[in-house]
Specification:
The chain contains four helices and 13 strands. With about 210 residues, the chain is an alpha+beta fold. Strand 7 and strand 8 (about 135) form a beta hairpin. The longest helix is centred in the N-terminal third of the chain and has 18 residues, at about 35-50. The relative contact order is 0.14. The protein has an eight-stranded mixed sheet with strand order 7-8-9-6-10-13-12-11, with helices on one face. Strands 1, 2, 3, 4 and 5 form a five-stranded antiparallel sheet that branches. Helix 1 packs antiparallel against helix 2 (about 80-95). It comes from Nocardiopsis tropica. It catalyses: (4aS,6R)-4a-hydroxy-L-erythro-5,6,7,8-tetrahydrobiopterin = (6R)-L-erythro-6,7-dihydrobiopterin + H2O. It is an enzyme of class 4 (lyase).
């Protein structure tokens, strides 16, 4: 089994192009066209096959996003970091621009006094599977849904909220932009792990980072 790494630096996980977000090394590379992105993904596939570390890849018209996690080791490994370095070198050789500031992960959170009771229902509705108390889409098409225990049973409480995890260096800008757009900071006592914001109608969202979670 490959040696599992510790959390590899949340500002720069492995190569400077990559960020550690929610258990994976993630990167985004800007491409000139869909064809250029497809060719890059194909080349990444050859590297990944050689390393036996298949990444998650999201190919769009103007960019490619990649995520590396050691599926057989329960976390990111030294092998994943080495593969990330090779992918970054490949991207540089092809003239692709890395945009780590644009990497982000969206989760849905449901506040409930009965997490274990409602998890099977949401697994069935979303066609997902339970994983560490969350509902995960095996195909990766839907954001994970996790359950936050609460003692409140008020019928008008906010039940769902979004968690947006971004690189630490992007969090302050994201929060400032939200406040400038009419929002407000509800609670920053757990910053930089997360800051709770609310829109003008009072709907809440958390901007999260990997800092301060230990």
């Amino acid at each position: 089994m490959a040696e599992q790494t510790t959390r590899p630096g949340v500002h720069r996980a492995g190569p400077a192009d990559w960020r550690w977000l929610l258990g994976a090394l993630r990167a985004r590379f800007e491409t000139a066209s869909f064809g250029a992105g497809a060719a890059f993904v194909a080349a990444v596939g050859l590297l990944a096959q050689e390393a036996d570390r298949p990444p998650d890849a999201d190919l769009r018209a103007g960019h490619v996003q990649l995520a590396l996690r050691g599926r057989d080791a329960g976390g990111v490994t030294a092998q994943d970091v080495r593969l990330a370095e090779r992918i970054s070198a490949l991207a540089s050789d092809r003239g692709l621009s890395a945009r780590p500031d644009r990497v982000q992960v969206l989760e849905l959170a449901l506040d409930t006094p009965a997490p274990e009771a409602v998890l099977p229902f949401w697994s069935a509705v979303l066609g997902g599977r339970g994983a560490d108390g969350s509902v995960v889409d095996p195909a990766g098409g839907l954001p994970p849904l996790w359950f936050q225990a609460t003692g409140s049973t008020a019928p008008d409480r906010q039940r769902f909220h979004l968690d947006v995890t971004v690189p630490p260096e992007a969090a302050d800008r994201r929060i400032a932009a939200a406040v400038a757009a009419g929002g407000r900071v509800v609670d920053d006592s757990r910053a930089p792990a997360f800051v709770v914001l609310a829109d003008p109608d009072g709907n809440r969202v958390c901007v999260c980072t990997e800092l301060g979670r230990d």
